[in-house]
């Protein structure tokens, strides 16, 4: 292949992110030009909001906007290590204790198995996209080629913001674990108080800033070396968890699996709170699986995507599920479920300290690649898309997010940050599962008639199925226990299964993946949609308020900046293609 054909022309390069447009003009070249662009906002929204790029464009013309290529240096062991490092974080021991005590009891083992199955279903959906389109954008790229630019931008912006807040919160928690390790229990002794600032923002945490900046330098230097560091830290962390598992099975008492410490006030048995407790526990522990999605953003740096990505993404989820189930069983045997509270001192710093470092590294690797591809698409400045030719990493995006995250971690308290985490990630999982179904059942990109014919029944099915899942969730959360509630839940479940069966029988698949595809289509992605709706229903009201606020802020940025930058980029690319066609035509005449 002629590599020069994949490189953007000077006109196209300058137009990305608002640097140029048709005829060399730009929406941002002057205040007058920006005013004219704002006056054309409705027309530009109509042209760009639902504009879907093709996978071929994402892997050639759009990727070429980064300049140098990312190095294909990762193999499936690297991806498994990154998946383990991203998922097995600092809070797993605390989460297990809370889910055991409050909801599932010893059956928290089953809760982890159910949550692992949910994660595996979502991982299958990510894997199909990553194998078919091995680019660095992860869910942003998947949604952009399926539902268009606006849907991709809103979900991507929410996901990046939650990555940033989560990373800042985790980095500040490292200070507390480090203090415990050296005998300083109060984190405030490691922080500098600043009089005059409001509470929650008045303690400067230089340790958290140092950790974030150190990891930023590492991921800017080399992806392969970052993977190697992650492998070492993750191996030590997993060995520590295995030690806890061995001690639980060796020193634990199997009677604790069925007998509470206070049988007069707490029910006994392996399922003390029934099926409801198990599923509520699954909703709580599912957050311990978040992190595997970052592995899909490394697809552009994988040697053999068709082999390495399925093993790396799905294999890491399976291994983590096995690890979590064994750990939950061992902890349940160590103590009766009704006296499990905070973990012992050793569990509060030995494992978590390593988990913080690995989860931070994987998350920061993933968010940098999200932002890099968002910059490539033209909706954010092209500076963010640049890949350094020597390190073969998205240095600009990595450095920008590292500095931004460090600034948040410097002042903002942990609880304030943690309240902003989770809903965006679950929403992206929900969107990707819908996108897999849509792409399978809607015609190819060059078949407009086929796309129109398949889009209506597919969108109708996805909407109806989501509404049934929402009804099930509302009944589960709000209806009082009794026969009527059980009947409604069974009816919702039956309606969901009937909808999937009818859709599969009546609507043929328009395309089939060449290398790797989600099995049992559309049952697997439909189950992922259903379960993610159910998990979204377990979140509190403030989470939705904050999600709405971030979505509104992202929509405002899109209307005021991104749609115009994207319009300029598209116009510039069209002008460059036209100029190239004219040159070829003149050459042919000569």
Question: Helices, strands, pairings?
Answer:
Layout: H1 10-15, H2 31-39, H3 41-48, H4 55-59, H5 76-87, H6 92-104, H7 108-132, H8 139-146, H9 149-181, E1 192-193, E2 203-204, H10 206-221, H11 223-251, H12 274-285, H13 293-296, H14 305-334, H15 350-376, H16 395-411, H17 414-418, H18 423-441, H19 448-478, H20 483-506, H21 523-536, H22 541-589
Antiparallel strand pairs: 1-2
For the structure shown, list the relevant keywords.
CAT_C; membrane; mainly alpha; two-stranded antiparallel ribbon; amino acid transmembrane transporter activity; Amino acid/polyamine transporter I; globular; AA/rel_permease1; transmembrane helix; 590 residues; 2 strands
Fraction of residues in helix: 55-70%
Provide the structure class: mainly alpha
Distance between the termini: 25 Å
SS strand fraction: under 5%
According to CATH, what is the topology of one domain? Amino acid/polyamine transporter I
- Provide the succession of SSEs: HHHHHHHHHEEHHHHHHHHHHHHH
List unreliable stretches of 5+ residues. 1-24, 580-585
Question: What is the CATH architecture assignment of one domain?
Answer: Up-down Bundle
Biggest sheet overview = 2 strands, antiparallel
What spatial form do the alpha-carbon principal axes imply? globular
Rounded to an integer in angstroms, the radius of gyration calculated over CA atoms is 25 Å
CATH superfamily of one domain: Amino acid/polyamine transporter I
Name the strands of the widest sheet in spatial order. Answer: 1-2
Count of extended strands: 2
Average pLDDT number? 80
Separate helix tally:
22
**Text of the CATH class of one domain:** Mainly Alpha
Membrane topology: Multi-pass membrane protein
Pfam families: AA_permease_2, AA_permease_C
Family: Belongs to the amino acid-polyamine-organocation (APC) superfamily. Cationic amino acid transporter (CAT) (TC 2.A.3.3) family.
Main location: membrane
């Amino acid at each position: 292949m002629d590599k020069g054909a994949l490189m953007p022309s000077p006109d196209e390069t300058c137009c990305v992110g608002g640097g140029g447009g048709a005829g060399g003009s730009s929406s941002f070249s002057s205040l007058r030009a920006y005013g004219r662009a704002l006056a054309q906002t409705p027309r530009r929204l109509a042209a760009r909001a639902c504009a879907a790029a093709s996978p071929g464009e994402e892997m050639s013309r759009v990727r070429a906007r980064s300049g140098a290529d990312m190095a294909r240096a990762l193999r499936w062991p690297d991806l498994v290590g990154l998946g383990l490092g991203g998922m097995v974080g600092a809070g797993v021991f605390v989460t297990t204790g809370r889910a055991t005590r409050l909801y599932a009891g010893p059956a928290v083992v089953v809760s982890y198995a159910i949550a692992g199955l949910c994660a595996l279903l979502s991982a299958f959906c990510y894997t199909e996209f990553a194998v078919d389109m091995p680019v660095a954008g992860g869910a942003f790229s998947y949604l952009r080629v399926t539902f268009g630019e606006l849907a991709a931008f809103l979900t991507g912006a929410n996901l990046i913001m939650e990555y940033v807040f989560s990373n800042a919160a985790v980095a500040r928690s490292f200070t507390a674990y480090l203090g415990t390790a050296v005998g300083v229990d109060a984190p405030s002794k490691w922080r500098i108080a600043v009089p005059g600032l409001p509470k929650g923002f008045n303690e400067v945490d230089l340790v958290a800033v140092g950790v974030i900046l150190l990891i930023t330098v590492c991921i800017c230097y080399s992806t392969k070396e970052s993977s190697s560091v992650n492998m070492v830290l993750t191996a030590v962390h997993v060995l520590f968890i295995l030690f806890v598992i061995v001690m639980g099975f060796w020193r634990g008492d199997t009677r604790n699996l069925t007998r509470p410490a206070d049988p007069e006030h707490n029910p006994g048995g392996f399922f003390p709170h029934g099926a409801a407790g198990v599923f509520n526990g699954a909703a709580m522990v599912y957050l311990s699986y978040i992190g595997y999605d970052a592995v899909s953003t490394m697809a552009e740096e994988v040697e053999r995507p068709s082999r390495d990505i399925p093993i790396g993404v799905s294999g890491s989820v399976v291994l983590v599920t096995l690890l979590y189930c064994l750990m939950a069983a061992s902890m349940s045997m160590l103590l009766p479920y009704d006296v499990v509270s905070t973990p012992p001192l050793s569990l509060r710093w030995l494992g978590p300290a390593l988990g913080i470092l690995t989860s931070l590294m994987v998350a920061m690797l993933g968010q940098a690649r999200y932002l890099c591809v968002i910059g490539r698409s033209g909706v954010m400045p092209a500076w963010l898309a640049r890949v350094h030719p020597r390190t073969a990493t998205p240095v600009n995006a990595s450095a920008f997010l590292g500095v931004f995250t460090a600034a948040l971690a410097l002042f903002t308290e942990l609880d304030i940050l943690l309240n902003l985490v989770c809903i965006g990630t679950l929403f992206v999982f929900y969107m990707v599962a819908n996108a897999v179904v849509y792409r399978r059942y809607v015609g190819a990109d060059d078949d407009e008639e086929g796309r129109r014919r398949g889009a209506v029944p597919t969108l109708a099915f996805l909407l109806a199925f989501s509404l049934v899942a929402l009804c099930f969730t509302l009944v589960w959360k709000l209806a009082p226990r009794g026969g009527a509630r059980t009947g409604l839940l069974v009816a919702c479940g039956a309606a969901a299964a009937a909808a999937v069966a009818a859709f599969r029988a009546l609507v043929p698949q328009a395309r089939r993946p060449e290398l790797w595809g989600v099995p049992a289509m559309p049952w697997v992605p439909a189950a992922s949609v259903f379960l993610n709706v159910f998990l979204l229903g377990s979140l509190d009201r403030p989470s939705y308020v904050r999600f709405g606020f971030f979505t509104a802020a992202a929509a405002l940025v899109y209307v005021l900046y991104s749609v115009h930058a994207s319009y300029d980029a598209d116009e510039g690319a069209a002008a460059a293609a036209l100029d190239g066609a004219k040159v070829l035509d003149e050459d042919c005449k000569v």
